[in-house]
Predict the structure.
Amino acid sequence: MTDDDYLSLLDRAKNCLPETIESHERFSLPEIDVLQEGKITVIRNFIDITDKLRRDPLHVLQYLLRELGTPGNVEGRRAVLKAKLGTAQISDRIQEYTDTFVICSECGLPDTHMNKEGRTLVLECEACGARRPVNAKKSSKSDASTGLKAGDIVEIFIHDVGKKGDGIGKFEGYLVIVPGTVKGARVKAKITNISGTTAFGAVTQEAATR
């Protein structure tokens, strides 16, 4: 093959290529449509969001209810949360869900599905073939070696308030509920009881509010 033949074939090949071979745009969810109805918060496009995530709506809802510390349910295409919650709070939790249960940690694409292996949920990427336990990103926070136990006194930043008015904070992977505190306060609390990854505390000393 002469140089002219090679260049001619190369030109023909280039002409057959599409202008854009592939696009890896950043994965984005529909903008969250939140409606406040008294002490009730409604995510009006909840099913649109779960459809984009390709995840079971009940699995997403259970995660939100646990992280936001409120009961709720799905009604049609809406999710009804029985607490007054801000759009930013809900958006942050949905992003956390997406990062943990949807996005591949290797290639960054959302083309994944979950399989259960024994008691462990495993995220498998359809794009690159990577596999990981879905709790991998939270292992440093939820490690049982933290040893939190009843009687411990810990410093908690109250980042939210539950439907009963109790302050909610986090400590080493535990959700800590501290009655009698307000959002934005930093308090020292004595742990009175622990159930799973939820702990209950009583204020011993209130520090400066942020």
